[in-house]
Amino acid sequence: MARAVHEKGAALDNVWGFVDGTVRPISRPKLHQNVMYNGHKRVHAIKWQAVNAAIGLIVHLDGAVEGKRHDAAMLMMSALCPQLEGSSAEPIQKGKPN
């Protein structure tokens, strides 16, 4: 998958998926409105974080979190970074021994 992304013009040769935070609007809650309010979209919401593979599959889904959370905060709250670091591999370079 990383090869296909790189061939489409990505600067890096090890990108196989894309992280995205999604805002899903909800009805205004009676309690804790400030926690659920997303100032960027100006709606009360629940947020989700997904990793979409280059072939269109959702390979990781995390949430739901409060609408006020920033995407970077969702990434830190999820276990995604340690999972990726634990399962990453050094890309094979042409002309280099393994």
TrEMBL record:
Family annotation (Pfam families): DDE_Tnp_4 (PF13359)
Listed InterPro entries: HARBI1_dom (IPR027806)
Keyword terms, alphabetized: Metal-binding
Required cofactor names: a divalent metal cation
GO molecular-function term, one example from the UniProt record: metal ion binding
Name of protein: Uncharacterized protein
